[in-house]
Specification:
Blueprint (H helix, E strand, L loop, with lengths): L1 E4 L5 H9 L3 E4 L5 H7 L5 E4 L6 H6 L5 E4 L9 H6 L3 E3 L6 H16 L2 H9 L5 H4 L9 E5 L3 H14 L2 E5 L10 E2 L3 H7 L2 E4 L13 H6 L4 E5 L8 H10 L2 E6 L17 E3 L8 H19 L17
Parallel strand pairs: 1-2, 1-3, 3-4, 4-5, 6-7, 6-9, 7-8, 9-10, 10-11, 11-12
Length: 315
């Protein structure tokens, strides 16, 4: 049997496949035309943020399972997979600590304008410290939007390290570990010095942080997004930062145009290239988890992280 590896994954995950007799097939490009050309003959696919399109799924002739390397699965056409009897699952939680740590790092970097300060020093510009204002995180109020593994991890870090008051807006979360639950997003936004987004992209969360939401945000708040770009109306955020209502933003996810657009003109916006789960430790955990899901599905078992119900058996 074969498993198509759409994007590079940690070698330990590949080794696990090989030990089980699964031949890894490596895509030279994550372009879906290339994927569609290489997918015939493969029973499994492991993909990262490139996802898997309907065209690629329909080009398959032996496909039984698609595993998302990580939590976000909106780039996989699950409807097309279900129609073809293909199971889709993900590997949530394996990279959560790395995402939580990056969110915290972005919050600190925005609060102290670390990248802008570094650029000023390298350029020989004096007076940066006197021209800008900086804030602490200690004792502040944080709103966590989406209480999954990464959001909960950040909440615990903020409480333990900074004695922060942690608010949670997460309608689907059954338990928020004793932190304060917000029934309305606006109520949390009005109180929070830091807003960190960790919710999946769904129809009801697309554009969640829009002009209306930002009109409720506490003046001087910091926004961090390590979840999905579509959660934020970038034009509205740029206006809020330009007006001073939002102090700054740390964005690990954003549109292709954002760095060259209005957001990119502000030294109070920090961009990182989707680094959330890109630590050595997280990449190893996620690759091993992805490989295990492939092996489980190909043996006829249904992984606990299955995302769809194929119309025909995948076993």
């Amino acid at each position: 049997m074969k498993c198509l590896i759409v994007q590079p994954v940690h070698a330990d995950g590949i080794a696990l496949l090989r030990e089980a007799g699964i031949e890894p097939v490596f895509c030279p490009s994550a372009d879906m035309a290339t994927v569609a050309r290489m997918i015939p003959g493969c029973e499994a696919v492991i993909t990262r943020d490139a996802g898997l399109s309907a065209a690629a799924i329909n080009a398959a002739d032996a496909l039984r399972v698609v595993v998302v390397h990580g939590a976000g699965h909106d780039a996989v056409d699950k409807e097309a997979a279900s129609e073809r009897g293909v199971l889709v699952c993900n590997t949530p939680g394996a990279n959560a600590r790395s995402v939580s740590e990056l969110a915290l790092g972005l919050a600190l970097a925005v609060a102290r304008l670390i990248p802008a300060a570094d650029r000023s020093e390298r350029a020989g510009i004096r007076g940066f410290r006197e021209m800008e204002t900086f804030t602490e995180l200690s004792g502040k109020t944080a709103l966590i939007v989406g209480w999954g593994a990464a959001g909960a991890g950040l909440g615990r870090m903020l409480k333990a390290a900074f004695d922060a008051r942690v608010l949670v807006y997460s309608p689907r979360a059954a338990d928020v570990e004793g932190f304060e639950r917000m029934e309305k997003l606006e109520d949390g936004l009005a109180q929070a010095d830091l807003v960190s987004l960790h919710t999946p992209l769904r129809p009801e969360t697309r554009g969640l942080i829009n002009a209306r939401a930002l009109s409720h945000i506490k003046p001087g708040a910091i926004l961090v997004n390590t979840a999905r770009a579509g959660l934020v109306d970038e034009a509205a955020l740029a206006e809020a930062i330009a007006s001073g209502r939002v102090a700054g933003a740390g964005l690990d996810v954003y549109s292709h145009e954002a760095p060259s657009g209005p957001l990119g003109q502000s030294n109070r916006v920090i961009f990182t290239p989707h680094l959330g789960g890109a630590t050595l430790e997280a990449l190893r955990r996620v690759a091993i988890g992805s490989a295990r899901n492939v092996l489980m599905a190909l043996s006829g078992e249904r992984p606990a992280t299955a995302l769809n119900d194929p119309v025909r058996s995948y076993a």
